[in-house]
Amino acid sequence: MKLLRHIANLGYGSRREVQALFGEGRITDADGAVLYADDRIAHECVRLDGAPLDPAPGMVLMLHKPVGYTCSTKDAGRLVYDLLPPRFRLRDPALSTVGRLDRDTSGLLLLTDDGQLLHRIISPRAQLPKRYLATLAQPLRGHEAAVFASGSLLLESEKTPLKPALLEAIDDTHARLAITEGRYHQVRRMFAAVGNHVQALHRECIGGLGLDGLAEGRWRALDAADLERLFAGRAA
Fold this sequence. Notes:
This protein is of the alpha+beta class. It has helices at 3-9, 15-23, 115-122, 144-149, 186-193, 224-232, and strands spanning 27-29, 46-48, 51-52, 60-65, 96-97, 105-112, 130-136, 166-171, 174-179, 198-206, 209-210, 219-221. The protein contains six helices and twelve strands.
């Protein structure tokens, strides 16, 4: 692919705008030699104003989503994309969230422009557990772990029972819950089904991948080692 199209697809501007960057000599190789619009050169060798380009297509990001942000490109209010460089919204192929966290849930959110990888992560066959920390309105009663692990819990308005989920009580009103599905508001609805209410919800990890100290509202690109950790955490 010619360099002009490649850089435009990364969201740095329209083809006309990227052509202007070439005209100003702002796009070079790693040694500072000026590059041209029809050049074909490895992504990692290109510099814009001396800085490496954003990750190439196949990018996977980890975002520590704060409460109050929506996993959408169009909804009103604050969006998770507001926490990323604006040009990320313009990438082709598009950058999409891997599943969703609702507005009132914080924690680990993955985004990628790799459709095959997205479906591999969210596929039920992947058996990737997602672990949440829940703060509850009422004390745990002691029966919740058995109910969630039974594989027979049926949520309101659904016809198929949930797959077994693992509950770890931390104290009376805090618990960790690991699920391998991604039904609508699943964790909140599970606790509602046993007579409780989730006051706060935070996703700590997906598979074997956690936030590892990433600050709230910050993001980073994942590498091959991160993806190995992600899939190494499959449920037994």
